[in-house]
Every structure is written in structure tokens, then in C-alpha cells.
Amino acid sequence: MKRTATSLxxxxxxxxxxxxxxxxxxxxxxxxxxxxxxxxIVAATKVSQRTFFRYFPTKEAIVFAEHATHMDxxxxxxxxxxxxxxxxxxxxxxxxxxxxxxxxxxxxxxxEWQIVVNCPTLVARDVELxxxxxxxxxxYLSENTQWAPEMCRVFAGxxxxxxxxxxxxxxxxxxxxxxxxxxxxxxxxxxxxxxxVNPPS
Length: 201
Known about the structure:
Helix content: over 70%
Oligomer: single chain
Radius of gyration: 19 Å
Structural class: mainly alpha
Number of helices: 11
CATH architecture of the largest domain: Orthogonal Bundle
Distance between the termini: 60 Å
CATH class of the largest domain: Mainly Alpha
């Protein structure tokens, strides 16, 4: 009985969170992020402002609601590749695997991009969040190679910079392309060669 009650509470929390995201994103897309207030979001969702802040510290957090999930996914994928003999290729493969989730959520991803690209504040926050990916990739390279820390940071920045360019191409095409195929096509000539796989120490 206790387990069932806990499960029901969790389902209710998820529904509430999903509704806040849905109504928030709908409003952001319709009238712009900056013109949308928390009061409007809670009114559309039919919850209190207090409830809103239990789920999200700011309205900005709604836009990037899946960031923590994607970071957890990347962490899990990198852990699975710990000790791989070709760390640069291992990271690339992990990023391609992460792209599968973006593919499955292409409509939501395109909506998010439309909101972010039209708001300088969100663009700046998006760049900050991307640094978290770079930092995690840099740590993986540091843990799995004998490279200097500076080299790991350079490689992490180069790799994720390439990913950002690919994602921009995907978004500008309304997320209609096969993201995994696009990623493999664009990344292969850049990183699958001896210089990047085995850089000088």
C-alpha cells in the first residue's frame, strides 16, 4: 500500500512538472520568454506560485528542464567507456548516443531552440550550460589519457564546438535531418585521424 501511494505521488509530481513545462513553453513560444511571467504560467497550469517554485527556481529553468537529464546520460555513457583505448573516439561515440534522445524528442528540441534563439538572456545561459558538457568531457580525457590538463581542455572545447555547429545546422533545418547520421558525417573527418586520436603530449 505504501509503495502504491508513493508511486501515485511520484506520478502526480511528474504530471504537474510536465504541465508546467508544457504551458510555460507554449507561452514562451507564443509571446516571448521575457514577456511571459510566472503568474501567467501558473494560471495556465492551474497551480499556485508556491507549487511552481517547488519544481523550478526560475522560469528560465523550464526552458532547460532536460539539461540535467542529458548530463546524467552523458555521465553514464562516459562511465561505460572508462578505460577505452581511444578516448577521443569514445567521447565521440557517447555524443552520438546522446543524440538519439534529441532525435526522439525532435519536436520539443525545435521548440526549445526557437525560444532560446530569440532571447539573448537564454542564449547566454545556453552557452553556460554547454560549458558543463565541455568540463565533463575534459575530465574524462584527463582520467583516461596521459595528456596535460591544457590539452584535455583544448580537445574538449574543439569537440563540443564541433557539436554546437552540428546542432545549429540541425536546428536551422527545423530538426528534420537524421541527427545521428549528420553527426557522424560531420565529425568523422575532423576527429577520426591519427592527430586527434593520438595527439602529441
